[in-house]
Every structure is written in structure tokens, then in C-alpha cells.
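Entry type: protein chain
Record version: 2
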Amino acid sequence: MLKKLLTQSFLTRTISGIALVVIIAAMLILGGDILLGFLGVVSLIGLFELYRIWGIHKGAMPGVLGYLAAIAYFVMMYLRLEAHFLMLVLILLILLMGVYVLSFPKYKIDTIIVVLFGFFYVVVMLSCIYRIRQLDAGIYLVWMVFICSWISDTCAYLVGVTMGKHKFVPNLSPKKTIEGVIGGIVGAMLIGALYGYICRDYMNIVSPAIVCAIIGAVGSVVSQIGDLAASAIKRNHDIKDYGKLIPGHGGILDRFDSVIFVAPIIFYLCTFIL
């Protein structure tokens, strides 16, 4: 067993995983414009990985417009101009339809839809990490995103491996079990409650342990949906990973698939609670 664990692939995955955690932790602690810039870079890489599936990642005008919209969105956040978000979306849609019409029949309508989908799925949803960090007590609440995604995923895996018997969605993820799903939810609840209790004097909310347990449960459910959604896209297009940026883990979208879904949910839960 030990020999199996100490394989080159396992060591590579472990080292890159630790490095990723350190980088994420540093960004969350620093917050502010540094975190915003980091998320902007991560979003552009994620868009590149997604657009590559449809072949619009290099030079194709729909993809270029998607990249430009992402940059414009983060610039708007930096300048505190989020109120003009709808204007940005409408301009992007109009420009995309203009490209679609003027270059017809070079691009299919599903390409236009993918650019819009990528903008919301990768850019807007991922930016909610920054929004959480900007809230009161955001420096503590933002960690719930990763408790609900990465910790939940670890708990689901461990319970699934040791106790899993009933398949959850065998056509999509043969190894995922109902027991694992429940284990992920319970694990996120317990770790969330513990985290809330430890940080109770800093969160400025009533019953932080209970609140974080609830956030953990809801976040875990959403996290697992996000994980399966990313897997479904890959299976639809017969690819194993979105990229190879993170050794042993794949690309940005492979590692942040659940985080992307969890971040906006936790942002609105925290906004409501605060």
C-alpha cells in the first residue's frame, strides 16, 4: 500500500496540491486588489480551457470577445462600477450576434451561446470569491467556499471508498455513490460547524457554528452538482481533463469546478445572513 502511495504520480499530485493550497491561502489572506487580479487571471485561463473544447480559444473572434468581456468585468469591479454589469452583458451579446451575422456561416449559434455561458460560468461565478472577501468578516467567511468544495469532496471520497455501495449517477460518474454524497454533506456540516465555533468571536453573526453548518450543508450539495456538471461537459466532448496547468490535477476548471458553483451560493447566503 505504501509503495502504491509513493508513486511518482501520487507525489506530483500531492506536491502540486499543497502548492495550490498555499497560493490560494495567500490570496485569500491578502484580499483586495491582489485577490481580484488573481481571480481575473484564473478566470481567463478557465475561459481558455473551456473555449478550447469548441476550438475558439486562439484568435477566433467569439473567443476574443469573451476574453475582452472578462477583462472589462474585472476592471469594472476594480473601479466599483458593478452597477453597469447589465450594460456589459448586453454589449457582449450584441457584438457576438454581430460577429455571428457578419461571418455567417463560419460560426454556429451554439458557439455564441458557449461564449456567454463561459462568461457567467467562469468569470462571474468565480468572482464571487472576491465579493465574499469584501463583506464584513469576509476574511473568515470566504474560507467556507473551500470547506464546502474541497473538504466536502475529500469527505465524499473517503466515505465513498470505505462505505459506498449504491451508485449515484453511474452513467456520468461510476465511482460516485449515494453514501459518498451524504458523507460529503455531513463532513462539510461538521467541519463548517467546527470552523464557525473556532471563529465565533470574529464573524459578528448570531450562532456562527449553526450558521456555518447550514452553509456547509447547502454548499456541499451545490459543490457536488458543480463537480458533476463539469464532468458532464467533459464526457460530452470525450476529454479527460480541461488542461494540464496543475500537475496531477488537470486544468483550472478541473480543480475549481465545484468552487465555481459554491462561491455565488455562499455569497448570497452570507449577504442574507449579515
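Comment: The longest strand covers residues 173-177.
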